[in-house]
Amino acid sequence: MQVGGHPSGVATLFFGPVSSAYPVFMPAQPKPTQLDPAQPAPAQPKVLKPLSKAPAFTLLDQRSDKIKLSEFLGRKVLIFFYPKASTPGCTTQACGLRDIADEIGDTAVIGISPDLPAKLQRFDEQQSLGFTLLSDPEHLVAEKYGVWAEKKLYGKVYMGVVRSAFLIGETGKLEQVWYKISPKDTPKKLLEALAQA
């Protein structure tokens, strides 16, 4: 083995005759593995509290009519956010609220999901719900109410609607806030809140 010079001044190792020499360079130290550029971490969803003003909105209902929250001033309103129409949990929740319609007086019930109006209309007709279902495909209202958040399912992380419900008083202020409510508890919580009012 011979040590030869290199024009750059870097020592080069030669094996065998100089005429058939091959330079051998020591490999550079590997750089730390670069993770795929991750999306910016989603902002923490805002958390609404009782006595705060309910965020205003205008959305299309199951008949593609524009509905404003302000139209319900003077009445109590239960707004419940659910992930997807006609799925088991969402059907249980919606039908549970349908079944207590005679017990809640003139309290309005409004369901909000990312589903489009046509799907909401089928959901309403199939289950004979009889209350307003609103379409929030861009999840803008869900974000206002702090229910568009990170979720996990079968090891996958994704953004979606966190099932939640809000009872709004006659003046437009929140009376009760239930984040991560279960489908079966939704009608129970509403009846309890109305009984205490």
Automatic annotation (TrEMBL):
The protein's enzyme class: oxidoreductase
Domain Thioredoxin: 48-197
Catalytic activity field: a hydroperoxide + [thioredoxin]-dithiol = an alcohol + [thioredoxin]-disulfide + H2O
Example GO molecular function: thioredoxin peroxidase activity
GO CC term, one of those recorded: cytoplasm
Sorted UniProt keywords: Antioxidant, Disulfide bond, Oxidoreductase, Peroxidase, Redox-active center
Coiled coil: none
UniProt xrefs under Pfam families: AhpC-TSA (PF00578)
Record note on quaternary structure: Monomer.
Family named by the database record: Belongs to the peroxiredoxin family. BCP/PrxQ subfamily.
Protein name: thioredoxin-dependent peroxiredoxin
Taxonomic source organism: freshwater metagenome
Origin organism lineage: unclassified sequences, metagenomes, ecological metagenomes
